[in-house]
Amino acid sequence: MAKNGFRILDSDMHVFEPHDLYLKYMNPKWGDRIPRGEPRKKHGQIKFTFADGKPLRPSGTQVLAATSPKPAAGETSPGETEVAHRYEKPLQRDYDAVSQLEAMDEEGLDVAVLFRTFPLHCDDSLEAEYANDLCRAWNSWMADFCKKNPSRLKPSALITLHDVDLAVAETRRAVKELGAVGLSLVPEPSNGRHIHDRYYDPLWREAEKLGVAVCFHPAASPNQDQVVHRFKGHANEAVLINAFRNPIELMLAVGSFCAGGVLERFPNLRVAFLEGNCAWLPWVLYRLDERWELRKGYTNEPLSRKPSDYFLRQCFISVDVEEELVADVIKRIGDDNVVISTDYPHADSHWPNAINHFMGVDIPSGARKKILWDNCARLYNVD
User: Fold this and answer.
1) Read out DSSP for 25-86?
2) Model pLDDT for residues 256-287, shown as the tens digit of each residue
3) What is the CATH code of the structural domain delimited by 9-26+89-380?
């Protein structure tokens, strides 16, 4: 397709799940606990419930404090009503695979790796088998969705950290049977276990063996230990939670993998930190390096190199299309570790002009080429 002479690979394009996804794909043994929703009538994500109408996990406008203003009645996530006019065409097809490809054509995308909008498994109270089966259903649906054009639509796979053995088995199925090119995980601790806990080593070992990218992408309102929960119910929570959630959780995830010993143990693992800006990365790497130099004698998981060296060797971070501070990131750490996403079809996406925004960011042409295609292709092992 080559927009402005550049091939473009979206590292984190989203989908809006259909209301009957889990009824069609989830193990029927779960009965009334199988998530279901009402058919979509307007732009926005489906709010899934159990058979009795109780939400699996509240999200979007459901979780804002009762005192928060509600500028758009019936809106499922803040901002959806404001941008709905841009999504009339995909809405008519209920955001199916055909509409996804049409949206890619409009934006000028050659290939996209597809990610969830609202993962249902991010809840420490769920039993491991149920959480894993939620992921299995989504992964099977995603694989079928991508069959419409496998050369352009690439599936990611939801992996839950409730139980490492189940996570390894689903990773193997998703990659070998479903064709997943990335694993989509949340970076938050799961039932008290951090992502650099050695308990999860079998999962990272399997991902390394399979050559599949591990992608950390925070979720909204998980029933897990998340930094921004402290803002819930307090003044202007809608702004504060949305501003800080993804960047801070990804900062902690970078720390876990680069200074917690994971990338020392798995030197061929490819890891991405998605949808949380990139401007903070040079400072985080500087801070980790500085603290490591001062305290490396106290580490119980020895590191043979600086935390920043692991990142530059194995990791990728996504830039928002209007994030002009990426120029400083490139100046400080280079242009080999940055990928891009349009964030379609979310309320804060600039689709169908997301890439046009990025074309206006002042960076060298060589760096733009790497960010739009080369780095993304290397992350996901896409030709």
Assistant:
1) HS-GGGGGGS-B-PPP-SSS----B-TTS-BSS--GGGGS-TTS--SSTT-SSTTHHHHGGG
2) 999 999 999 999 999 999 999 999 999 999 99
3) 3.20.20.140
